[in-house]
Structures are given as C-alpha cells and as structure tokens.
C-alpha cells in the first residue's frame, strides 16, 4: 500500500518537475543526472484559494515557484487595507526577499489567489543546493535580476505615470492578469480604489 502511494505521488510530481526543469534550462543547462539530484532539494504543495503561505510576523522560510496557479504578496497598511505589491503566475518565483535572506519575521503575507500548485525550497536547502550545483547559482542570479528589474520598473511607473496610465501600462505588459485577477486585487496593486478602477475601465471599454 505504501509503495502504491509513493508511486502515485511520484507520477503526480513528475509533470511539475518537468515544468521546473524547462524553466531552469532557459538560463542554464542541466544533465539528467544533475536534475535527479537537484529536485531532491525541493518540496511540492497544493495550495487552496486564499490560503496563506506566509503571514506577517512569521519568519520567511521558503522561496516559492509557481507550477500552476497564481499567488500574490501583500501587506496591511495603517488603515487596515490590504496593499498588494506583487503577483506570481506560472514559472514565476515569489518570496519576501529581505526576510528570506536574513531569516527574520516578514512584514508581508503571501497568499494563493487561485488554487495553486507550487514547488518550494528552504533557505538551508537553497544554500546546500548552490554549494552542490554551482550551475544553479547562474539560474538564481537571473531570477533575482529579473525580479529586481521588475521592481525598478514598477517604482518608475508609480512616480512617472498617472494612475490611469499605470493601469493601461499594466494591461499592456500583462494582459493575462485582466482575465485572472479579481478587479479589487488589481486596484490594490495599482494603489486605486475599486470604484476608481471601475471608472477607468468603463472609459476604455466605451
């Protein structure tokens, strides 16, 4: 019975790992033998809609790779309003980078917007992985560079564009979000009220 369960778990996990390997190979090459060892550093998880992977005040222990689904990172401001700062769709990574690197309590929440399937790695496992497989340093360097560049662009848009222009820019860059993300979360990400976002959308639909 136990062997049967393990076999089913292995069969279920294989497609997830294939997606992850394809993503790695966008940035660096790994052999079959290397990947067999690399995947041992990761765990998998099915996450329910609105389930929290991280909560404010908890030490950020993991870095999350989205195999299927959609995550968001947010904080609760002084008015008690949720302010979304990042989304992550398929093949995107998400964590609280500062809290993860320094092993300290986070100021953020990470939550599933949809039912999601993720791979995740702990800080300790990631450090061991990078020592054992230097090629993965190249992979994660690209991941961090892309995340940093995306954060820089968002800051630039916040300061240089009107709220309406920021929304239209977001739609052009990531049209998939319009279909998948609830409007109130898009408003939260853009720093708008849901009512004002609705007005903007009506102007551009008509």
UniProtKB/TrEMBL annotation:
Domain of life: Bacteria
A UniProt-annotated Pfam family: cNMP_binding
All residue ranges annotated as the Cyclic nucleotide-binding domain in the record: 45-131
Name of the featured protein: cAMP-binding protein
Species per Swiss-Prot/TrEMBL record: Pedobacter quisquiliarum
């Amino acid at each position: 019975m136990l062997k049967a369960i393990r076999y089913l778990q292995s069969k279920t996990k294989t497609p997830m790992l294939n997606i992850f390997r394809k993503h790695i190979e966008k940035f660096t090459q790994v052999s079959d033998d290397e990947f067999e060892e690399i995947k041992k550093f990761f765990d998998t998880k099915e996450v329910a809609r609105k389930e929290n992977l991280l909560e404010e005040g908890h030490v950020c222990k993991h870095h999350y790779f989205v195999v299927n689904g959609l995550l968001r990172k947010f904080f609760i401001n002084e008015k008690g309003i949720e302010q979304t700062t990042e989304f992550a769709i398929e093949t995107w990574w998400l964590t609280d980078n500062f809290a993860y690197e320094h092993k300290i309590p986070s100021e953020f929440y990470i939550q599933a917007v949809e039912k999601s399937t993720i791979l995740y790695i702990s800080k300790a496992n990631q450090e061991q992985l990078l020592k054992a497989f230097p090629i993965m340093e190249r992979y994660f360097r690209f991941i961090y560079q892309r995340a940093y560049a995306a954060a820089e662009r968002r800051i630039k848009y916040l300061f240089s564009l009107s709220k309406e222009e920021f929304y239209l820019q977001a739609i052009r860059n990531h049209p998939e979000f319009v279909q998948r993300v609830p409007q109130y979360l898009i408003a939260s990400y853009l720093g708008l009220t849901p009512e004002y976002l609705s007005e903007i959308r009506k102007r551009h639909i008509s």
